[in-house]
Design goal:
The protein is α+β, with helices and mostly antiparallel strands. Helix content is 34%, strand content 22%. It has a 5-stranded mixed beta barrel. Strands 7-6-8 form a 3-stranded antiparallel β-sheet. It is globular.
């Protein structure tokens, strides 16, 4: 049955000479995979350049109960980008976030609040002109709330450690073996206090930003099965060097 749905592109791979497979996080059905025909002419109904990292598109697809991959009939942007594809710094951040979402979002996740969070974050990022170097850090930390991984922030005191396993601050060195020391813990707490509008007020140099990125990636690796070291991290660090 043909249905129209909205979705955010998180991953795309070549299936064969005629089709790509796009993994898209949709408002109505959560994560789903779609078969997208590779256009052979400019008059094709589905343009391939619509399916870029974090693109927000309206799909008309054939949904059938016995299928795991759905064929796209038509597609168009429902929130066209004004800056992300044209700024190399934003492209690097978009690639990183799309790789993160590809690893963090499972098929069973169907959460319209989560979808709205991602959608509104991408829209803000696209419209932002300056001071967005910490966007990916704030995005990942706030995403932890929707995935049930938001840490307990109430027990923080100066000099606290952060217990990565139990997601809390402790006055002494945790016995879990996976923790960060007081200096890094203070930076993580600072990040949790940021939002998109205020993050430019928190000064971080390149080394501090990269260290926080490594810690956040390690945190997700501890709590999400099979979560890897994200390959696009090195590209992101290089672009902002």
């Amino acid at each position: 049955m043909l249905q129209k749905i909205n979705g955010i592109v998180i991953h795309i791979i070549k299936y064969n000479d005629s089709f790509n497979i796009a993994d898209i996080f949709t408002r109505e059905k959560g994560r789903a995979s779609f078969l997208v025909r590779i256009p052979k002419s400019r008059k094709a109904g589905v343009r391939n350049n619509l399916f870029q990292p974090l693109s927000m598109i309206e799909l008309e697809a054939d949904f059938r109960d016995n299928k795991h991959i759905f064929r796209v009939k038509n597609a168009k942007p429902y929130m066209p980008f004004i800056s992300i594809p044209y700024d190399p710094y934003k492209v690097a951040i978009a690639l990183f976030i799309s790789e993160f979402l590809n690893r963090a979002l499972r098929e069973e996740i169907h959460d319209q609040l989560l979808y709205s969070y991602i959608e509104n974050s991408i829209k803000w990022f696209d419209e932002c002109r300056t001071n967005f170097a910490n966007f990916h850090l704030v995005f990942l930390l706030r995403m932890s709330r929707f995935l049930g991984l938001y840490p307990n922030m109430e027990d923080y005191e100066d000099g606290s450690y952060f217990d990565m396993v139990n997601s809390c601050f402790t006055p002494g060195q945790p016995i879990s073996g996976a923790f960060i020391g007081p200096e890094d813990a203070s930076h993580i707490r600072m990040l949790f206090r940021m939002n998109y509008e205020t993050m430019h007020l928190f000064a971080m140099n390149r080394e501090q930003r990269n260290r926080c990125l490594n810690i956040i990636n390690d945190y997700y690796r501890l709590h999400i099965p099979d979560f890897p070291v994200l390959k696009s991290m090195d590209v992101l660090k290089e672009v902002f060097s």
